[in-house]
Amino acid sequence: xxxxxxxxxCCLSTIVWxxxxxxxxxxxxTPRIAQKNSASPEQVNTSLKKATTDSKNQQAIExxxxxxxxxxxxxxxxxxxxxxxxxxxxIDPQYFYQNxxxxxxxxxxxxxxxxxxxxxQHNKIVHATKHAIPMMTGTxxxxxxxxxxxxxxxxxxxxxRQLNITTNQVKTLDTGESRFDTSPPRIDxxxxxxxxxxxxxxAQKTVSTLKSYxxxxxxxxxxxxxxxxTGKVRDGLFTxxxxxxxDGVTLFTSHFNKGKNVRVLETLDGxxxxxxxxxIDFSRSGTYLALGTEGDAMFHPIGLDEQTLNYxxxxxxxxxxxxxxxxxxxxxxxxxxxxxxxxxxxAKTVAPLTDFEELVSPPLLQDGKxxxxxxxxxxxxxxxxxxxxxx
Length: 391
Prior knowledge:
The protein is mainly β and about 400 residues long. The chain has one helix and 32 strands.
């Protein structure tokens, strides 16, 4: 099961407050609905042709859309409107640990990480740096983020930092430099580890390395490297993004063969590999791989003799993102920016989890709790759902 994944950032831009008002509403709810070696480009092309043929011969089943909202457990709602009354911003939950909301603010010359204590109604700084913070995430008692320095002619230097929330100790896990238009790493987490991809680039080649960091041992282990030759004709593999979960790592890569490029979504364990285009978001459980695109959410079975499932969004231009598996067959995702949806893949149904709002953040999942924020005009609320065991 996936614990938490970085969602799109909407930071709180403020001065530091010592105290701020915050009210909480509690709602009791009941559910209403029940290492491998890289393949050669030739091998990849063969497997892609087979995957395409199989998908054409087997049409996807459309999930049945239900109109009644579902509730997944006891919900606590925190009204943060007074916290934001003097600021034109909203909080997307970057991480929620016990009674603390973590978020960050990008100022002109520095970045600041804050925590808001929902019980004490107290807001404070936990870390400040002169560098930019492009993303932040967390798992258990650990907060992790990326810091980037000002770009130079050679590239952008970056570091991966960790805060132990219980001891307030900050340490650096990894460092590097993004060169030749490569990007700094993006951290993903599970219940036991964090992972990221580093890209070491020269004028001749780019080496992408997937690394895993054990929260228990503190050891960083390289899992897999991919090499792209970047001469006159590109050849090899380049990794764009990855998603990590307790069920394994999924990679979105480009396979170059004599200059020709095929984009592939594949699991590190080899259980799934398919050519894909127009991908916005993706995630996996033990039995399904979910894809978010414009207009559709698709659920491909992994190791099951089942047909692909599909959910058609309200319009062909509506995006699907923020995919979070609650279990192997139950998943939450965001439709557009206005609503969260809940899909039961076993029952083949989809139902709204929230009303249609002005702005709903992508959901986060950690420690058996689903967290998201809703903004309507000047009112901002944070919602924490304690999931029932059935979910």
